[in-house]
Each structure stands twice: as C-alpha cells, then as structure tokens.
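Exercise 7. Given the encoded structure of a 690-residue chain, write a plausible sequence.
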C-alpha cells in the first residue's frame, strides 16, 4: 500500500532532547539577526558558547554545514573556558548535524564523546539523551540489536529519574525498532504503553503521534498478511488501522495541526482504497489535497496526487487518473526547481555569514595584538628594574629549600612504603591461612553429605541443586536407608559460611544418632528427638546459644510404598497429577523455641492411581524438598526477591521433563535472575520422582 511518508515524530522528539538549550525571546528581529547581535556583544564565556549553539540550531534545517562550523566554534570556546557541560553539548550538536547529513561514523563519534563527559559529570539527563541519539544512529544503519540496547539504557535512566514524558518517548522508540523489523505484536505492545503514558500526562501532541504509529503498525501488518492471502485477518487489521488513524485525526484536529491532519486524511484515504471503499477513499484524499494546497505543502500534495492517480486507475476512471498524474509530475518538477533555489540561498547565507565572521575576527586579532605589545613592554621594564643578580639569588635560595624538603619527603615515603609492604605481607599470610582452613572445613563438611552414587542407587530418578553461598555452607542434605525405609532431607542451619557449617555438623550428627542409635522411623518423632539432641549439645555451653535448623524430612518405605513427611518451617511440595500441592510445616525450628510442640507426621500414600487433567494416566509423583535460599535471592529487572510463587510456577511448568532437565532449567533460572548481584544465601533444592 502506498502511503504518505510522514516524518517520524519520535525522531523529532529525540533531536529536541539532545540540544539542552535555553529558550529566548527575540522581539521583532529574526532569531538569526538577534543571535548574531548577541554573539557580537558577548564576552568569551559560557553565554557565547550557548549562543553559538542556538544559532547553529536555527540554521540546521537550511544549512547543516554552517551549523557544523558554528558548533565547532562553540566547542573551541567551551574548551578554552574549560566548561565541560558546554563541551558535551557542543559534541552533541555536532553529532546531530552529522546525523542530519547521514554521516553516521562522525555522528557516532561525537555522540560517544558527549556521553563520556556526561558520565564523568554524572549528568543522567545528558546521558539519556546521548544514549537515545546513539540508538537512532544504529537504527538508521539497520543494526537493530544495538539500537535496542541503547534505547533500553536510556529508558532505564529515565525510569530512575521518574521523567514520565521521556519514558514514553523511549518506550515508543523501542516499538519503532520492532515495527521496522515487522514484529508487529511487540511494536504494538510498546506503542500502547507509550500511548497510555501520554494520556496520563495529557500530552496531546504525543497522543496523536502514538495513535498514528499504532494505525501504521496495524496497516503494515495487514499489508504483510495480504501477501500470504489471509484476507480475513487482513480485513481485521485494516479496520484496526482505520480506527487508530481516526483517533489520531481527532487529536490532530484538536491541536490544530493542519499538516498532521492532511497526512492522516491521506493515510485514511489510502486505507479505504486498499479495502475497496473507493467513494470514501476519494472523499478523504480530496480533503487532504485541499488542506495541502492551503498550507502550501507541495511534497505532500504531490503524494496525494499520486494516491488519487492510483485510486482512479483502480476504478477505471482513466481520464482523471491521467490528470492527477500530470499534476503530480508538475509538482515534482516544481519541488526540484525550489530545491535548486534553496541551494543558492544557502550559498549566499554562507558567504554573508563567513564575511561577517572574517571582519569580526580581524577586529579581534587587532585588539589582541595591541594587548600583547603592551604586555611585552611591561615585562621588559620589570626585568630591567629587578636585575639579573637578584633573580639568581632568589632562585638559588628557592632551589636549596626545595632540595631540603624533597630529601625529607623522600625519607618519609621510604619508611611508609616499607611499613605498607610489611603490613601487606602479614595480611596476605593471614588470608592464606584462613582460606586454607576454610577449604579444609569444606572437605570435612562434604564428608557428611551422602555420595551421589549412594543417592542415585536408592533413588534413581532425582536431582540435587546445591549452591553454597561461601566455600562452606549452612545448608546440607542428608540420606540414610534402614529397615527398607529411605530417609532423605533438605536442611537449613542457622547462618551460612563457617558458622552455618559448624551447626550443620551438629545437626547431621543428631539425625544419624536418631535413626541408628535410637532406632526411630516416624518422621515427626525423628525431628522431636533431633531437637532434644541439638538442645542437649548447645546446653553444655555457658552461653545462650539459639542455633538450630529448618528441615524438610521425607521417608519412603520400599515394601509398603508408604511415604511420611515432617517439616520444621520448610514445606513439602509434590505433583501427583499435573497440579502442585503443598503440605505446611510446623512453624518452629529444630532447636530452641518458646512454644515448642511435637512435630506432625504427614502420610502420603504412593499407591493412589493418579490421573492427569488431560485424561492420561500419571504413574509417578514428583516430590520437592528445599530451603529458602532459592526463593529469597534478589535479582530480576527491579532487584526484587524471586519468591516462592515464581518457584512454584517454574516447577509446575516443567514437571513433564526429566529430573536432569529440571535441574538445568532451575539453575539457569536462578543465575539469570541473580545476574550480577551477590548470592544472598545457600541454595538447596531436591527433586525426586517416585
């Protein structure tokens, strides 16, 4: 479908963002004459830098080459007066003018220079502008991956600043990248987000922009579907394109934006032509043509004439088609002639401006020469009065004093350096001793964990995701088989690192004694006895020790197929029929507690014939034992906790996969969520299929 080529409104907004210039009122004079007068009066300071850049912007639409010269003068002056923000703004201007000329390597070079200074100044507003402009360069070059990367960086900064208007702009620009790549669902998603924010802010101009972009996306998606002969879906999308084009038209009429009204009318007429509503198409195109003639927009008038030519050809009105085709050609010739005239005007402006600059420079050079001559005479007079001998004496005294100070400083530095080296050596030796001790503790702790072969032999279909926060951990897993009963547990002892590891040794030993020495098999009674043994161990100390553990303990009788479970603070999750169920643990630890009660033993019969929701038989049940480290990990786009709800959804979504695949998925999900943040706690998650 041939549409009127409207300017990309989001790019216009970005260019405005990049300038950061104050607004001025110029009374009856033209802005260019007023700025030239200000520059002539200005001292060599920050105001003159700003005026140079404003003048460059005023000339940018007619002569970007002159704008480049002016911004380079602004840059030179900003460097002279050492105004870093002015240097950054001048670099940004130069990047924009080379962007206008499609000289992307130079545009990118200047934007990056501006970005480095803004980062040095910690100017987040400036950083956001430069990042967005760099995204524009990559977008125009077709490097959409890099364009999205920079747009998202700009969006992140604006979200930190809370600037909703700019947030909407970056969101819409991200949508435009997906639009260019024909990813219409994503493009529309971002356009609607931008539209919603513009409506919340009451920004009518931006509302009209995003409505137009939404209409364009639906229209382009319809064109793509037409190629696949899916006319039903095509008609639906064309209708959506029309709906949003009419909304955009309404907003532009409220704003009184005649050019925007004419463009939107032309696009509506083009859509009606495609949907074979030729009468409506003709009405809208003729209305668009009328407004274009009123405002003197020859280029858009030419495009509407071409659309009318297309319409009349389709409706077999060949005489009208020929008339409008001739008008389009005449307009095309006129535009070509006008462009030549503009080039001549630009050359004349350059000549006049360069002439004025040359005269001003010659006058300034003359003044500078007089000042330098006066300074030279003063210096000669001063040297003749002081005399060479006094200069030699003063210099000698100065050098002697500097030598004495230097010698003292050298001795002090040598002593300090020696002390620092000795302290560094001591610290390194201590660190090595501590690390060696912790590594040895790790080997001791690993000895209390059941070997992988031992676990796999008794529970062939399992996985154990174990990620200590430090070298040693407070989390541990435990397993024993006695009297045809398999016991397996996931435990979380108080703390992590070395303190947690020490408590884990005490708790693991208590579990072993309970089932081997005291011959207990009921999971609730096992936890009661373990609590007694842990309290007994810590009561021997004269300190008030409150350490203990949270635990999820499962027992599986291989003969009766009966499964028992008890828990201290940590629940049991299991999936018998594609639905995740949980059993709540006793709200008390294995350890000291003010209101201690006996632990509850829950029975889960494995022999029940489960069936899936889809009607297929389910012969196995999945059990998950875990500590709180996975759910408590901070990360994600907003640095929040992973939480149990998300872990629940992840397990349920992947319950039909093998246990090895589930482990890989869980580990990847954890690392992706954590990102560059530090792991906050030990992580332990055990999966078993029975």
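Solution.
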């Amino acid at each position: 479908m041939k549409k009127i080529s409207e300017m990309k409104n989001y790019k216009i907004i970005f260019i405005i963002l990049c300038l950061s210039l104050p607004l001025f009122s110029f009374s009856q004079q033209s802005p260019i004459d007023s700025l030239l007068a200000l520059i002539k009066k200005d001292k060599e300071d920050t105001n003159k830098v700003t005026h140079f850049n404003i003048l460059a912007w005023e000339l940018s639409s007619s002569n970007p080459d002159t704008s480049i010269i002016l911004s380079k003068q602004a840059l030179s002056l900003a460097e002279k007066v050492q105004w870093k923000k002015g240097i950054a703004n001048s670099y940004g201007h130069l990047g924009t003018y080379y962007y206008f000329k499609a000289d992307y390597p130079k545009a990118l070079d200047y934007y990056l220079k501006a970005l480095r200074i803004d980062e040095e100044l910690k100017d987040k507003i400036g950083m956001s502008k430069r990042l967005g402009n760099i995204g524009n360069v990559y977008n125009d070059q077709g490097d959409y991956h890099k364009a999205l990367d920079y747009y998202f960086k700009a969006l992140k900064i604006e979200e930190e600043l809370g600037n909703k208007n700019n947030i909407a702009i970056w969101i819409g620009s991200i949508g435009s990248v997906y639009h260019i790549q024909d990813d219409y669902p994503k493009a529309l998603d971002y356009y609607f987000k931008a539209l919603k924010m513009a409506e919340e802010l009451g920004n009518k101009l931006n509302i009209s922009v995003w409505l137009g972009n939404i209409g364009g996306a639906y229209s382009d998606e319809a064109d793509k579907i037409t190629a696949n002969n899916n006319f039903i879906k095509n008609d639906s999308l064309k209708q959506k394109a029309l709906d949003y084009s009419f909304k955009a038209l309404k907003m532009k009429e409220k704003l009184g934006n005649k050019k925007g009204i004419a463009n939107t009318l032309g696009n509506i007429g083009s859509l009606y032509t495609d949907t074979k509503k030729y009468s409506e198409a003709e009405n809208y195109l003729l209305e668009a043509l009328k407004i274009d003639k009123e405002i003197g927009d020859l280029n858009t008038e030419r495009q509407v004439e071409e659309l009318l030519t297309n319409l009349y050809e389709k409706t077999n009105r060949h005489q009208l088609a020929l008339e409008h085709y001739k008008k389009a050609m005449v307009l095309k010739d006129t535009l070509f002639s006008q462009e030549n005239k503009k080039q001549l005007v630009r050359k004349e402006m350059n000549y006049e401006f360069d002439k004025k600059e040359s005269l001003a420079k010659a006058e300034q050079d003359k003044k500078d020469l007089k000042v330098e001559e006066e300074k030279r005479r003063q210096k000669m007079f001063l040297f003749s009065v002081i005399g060479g001998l006094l200069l030699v004496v003063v210099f000698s005294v100065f050098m002697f004093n500097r030598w004495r100070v230097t010698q003292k400083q050298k001795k002090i530095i040598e002593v300090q350096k020696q002390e620092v080296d000795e302290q560094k050596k001591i610290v390194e030796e201590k660190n090595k001793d501590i690390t060696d001790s912790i590594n040895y503790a790790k080997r001791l702790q690993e000895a209390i964990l059941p070997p992988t072969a031992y676990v796999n032999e008794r529970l062939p279909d399992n996985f154990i995701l174990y990620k200590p926060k430090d070298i040693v951990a407070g989390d541990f897993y435990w397993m024993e088989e006695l009297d045809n009963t398999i016991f397996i547990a996931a435990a979380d002892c108080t703390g992590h690192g070395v303190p947690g590891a020490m408590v884990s040794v005490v708790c693991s030993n208590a579990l072993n004694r309970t089932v081997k020495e005291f011959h207990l098999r009921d999971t609730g009674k096992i936890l009661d006895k373990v609590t007694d043994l842990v309290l007994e161990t810590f009561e021997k100390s004269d300190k008030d020790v409150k350490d203990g553990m949270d635990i999820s303990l499962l027992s599986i009788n291989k003969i009766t197929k009966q499964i028992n479970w008890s828990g201290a603070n940590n629940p049991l999750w299991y999936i018998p029929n594609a639905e995740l169920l949980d059993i709540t643990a006793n709200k008390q630890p294995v350890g000291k507690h003010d209101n201690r009660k006996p632990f509850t033993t829950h029975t889960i019969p494995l022999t029940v014939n489960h069936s899936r929701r889809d009607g297929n038989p389910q012969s196995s049940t999945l059990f998950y034992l875990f500590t709180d480290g996975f759910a408590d990990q901070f990360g994600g786009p907003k640095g929040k906790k992973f939480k149990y709800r998300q872990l629940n959804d992840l397990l349920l979504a992947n319950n039909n996969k093998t246990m090895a695949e589930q482990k890989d998925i869980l580990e990847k999900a954890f690392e992706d969520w954590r990102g560059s943040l530090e792991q906050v706690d030990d992580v332990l998650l055990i999966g078993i299929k029975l």
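Remark. The two ends are 60 Å apart (CA to CA). Students should compare their own answers with the one above.
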